[in-house]
Design a protein that fits this description.
It is built from nine helices and seven strands; from the N terminus they run αβααββαβαββαβααα. By secondary structure, the chain is α+β, with helices and mostly antiparallel strands. The protein has three domains: about 5-75, Arc Repressor Mutant, subunit A (Orthogonal Bundle); about 95-155, Alpha-Beta Plaits (2-Layer Sandwich); about 165-260, no CATH class. α5 (about 105-120) packs antiparallel against α6 (about 135-145) and α7 (about 170-190) crosses α9 (about 230-260). It is globular, with a radius of gyration of 20 Å.
Length: about 260
């Protein structure tokens, strides 16, 4: 687990109900059970500040960092997808994004990273598609140094044709593999720990961290575009049940850790 990725998880899943901020000491204490050492936390904070995700603040008289507006928007969108209750209704309209600004290879890579995270797929060269309008699209393009024009289409034949832009076979395998090992991974964190609340926090943190990786692969397609035996459904149900089961103990650990006790 990389420290920068873990900090995104902290701000997105732990600090969202705590004013999106923490002291540096609090961040170090929170990440200690995940195996990330203090120097790595401080280095990751510095990088996230330079990238516009965090900004310095004072928290209870101590040096700390708050999520920026840019980060809060990204984390809110990610949290909606992580804890999505069910597939959204779809009106059979596809959004097309035509990246129009001439861009070099590094900018293309940034576009690919940003738009894939939002749930778009590249259907043709510099033409991206999504079954839903993603509200962070233009902010993501700005971060990538690109511009685009958008259009909507309903007349694809067959109607599910653009879904071929995603590698759903690979995604199905990833969901099945994760689901097969997730329960054992939780028990590994809980077994033999002398602090059940800290164990619950570590187990839930790793659970969310691994599940969040699917945000970079799963476009959150409408249910009617997925096969009846889609393994993502069972995996999502397991994630929701496990995250809820570990929530109370995890919250107790977070509360006492951030209070300094």
């Amino acid at each position: 687990m990389h420290a920068r990725s873990a900090l995104f998880d902290v701000y997105g899943d732990v600090l969202s109900q705590r004013d999106n901020r923490s002291s540096v000491a609090g961040l170090v204490r929170l990440l200690a059970p995940t195996g990330i050492a203090a120097p790595a936390v401080r280095t990751a904070i510095s990088r996230m500040v330079s990238q516009g995700w965090l900004e310095p603040v004072t928290v209870s008289g101590a040096r700390g960092y708050a999520a920026t507006g840019q980060a809060i928007r990204r984390l809110d969108a990610a949290r909606e997808r992580i804890y999505r209750p069910s597939s959204r209704a779809w009106d059979h309209t596809w959004q097309l994004v035509f990246v129009s600004t001439p861009i070099n290879r590094s900018a293309r890579t940034r576009v690919q990273r940003e738009l894939s995270f939002l749930g778009y797929a590249e259907m043709a060269d510099l033409v991206w598609v999504s079954p839903f309008v993603r509200r962070e699209l233009h902010a993501a393009l700005d971060r990538a140094g690109a511009r685009a024009i958008t259009a909507e289409a309903r007349d694809f034949s067959p109607a599910h044709g653009p879904a071929a832009a995603w590698d759903l076979g690979h995604l199905a395998t990833a969901y099945s593999t994760w689901h097969a090992s997730a329960a054992a991974e939780i028990e590994r964190h809980l077994a033999g720990h002398d602090d059940p609340d800290e164990a619950a926090f570590a187990a839930r943190f790793h659970l969310v961290h691994e599940w969040r990786k699917f945000l970079f692969e799963d476009p959150d397609l409408p249910d009617e575009l997925l096969p009846p035996d889609w393994p993502g459904r069972a995996a999502s149900a397991f994630f929701t049940e496990a995250a809820n089961r570990l929530h109370a103990g995890s919250e107790r650990f977070v509360a006492r850790t951030l209070s300094g006790h």
